[in-house]
Amino acid sequence: MKSEVKISGDRMEITRVFDAPRHLVFAWWTQAEKLQQWSGCKEATKCEIDMDFRVGGSFTQKMQIAGAGEFSFGGRYDEIIEPERIVYHANFGPVITRVIVEFFEQGRGTKVVVTHEGCPDEFFSKTVSQGTTESLDKLDLLLASQAVSLPL
Amino acid sequence: MVNNQAKITAIFAALADPTRRRILARLSNSGAGPVTALAKPFRISAPAISRHLRVLEKARLIHRRREGRVHVIRVRAAGFQPARDWLAQCAAEWDFSFDALDELLKIEQRKGKQHEVRGKNQR
Is A94 in contact with B84 (Cβ distance < 8 A)? Predict the structure, then answer.
């Protein structure tokens, strides 16, 4: 896995550095034709995105998953600050999470930090990791050492 | 993972409640305990505690053992695995998507440079 994954408090952060200027990286998030070229899971054979990229606008992402049929999720944009920040609510799989995407200039490149809030990691970090049971570090290790690929 | 959706939903729904998270926190600190001892620090009724425990039990996050009339509750660490997997999958999917974006950006950058060179040559 080339991305860095960090789980703390009640959030999960995924960080990735891209070797491109910030305005270019940001642009790939703002239009459906661009976004659907890269967004989607490994098993998706086809990805269609409908998006109204403005504060209050909504989006839906439909994917065809080999062996499992269609999977879709949607959400609404809460905040857009070009080219720094996009915040949206997503009905992402079984949970609704608030997703914050931040774009930082880093040298000639761009650091992108995706934060999922409302994941159950508050529980993981505050209880399981401090208790006698398995710790959250395991998950960190798991994420750092291998790309977990599970069908949806 | 499709078959797991119901399980994951049950886990997340169980964890969404602060009282249930506190019950789990207490349990993972103490290991196991009878329901009565577990209920002590919470200013809610016994039936309310029972309801919370039933939700946790249904989500398979706790295990209940009956010792005569006493119910001993313990955390089921393995019960969290589907939720962990979901989180891991969520991160893995971003990583996978980011690989694709990385490629697209590289292609775009190369094209941009070619345009620049062409522009300069024309001038």
Answer: no
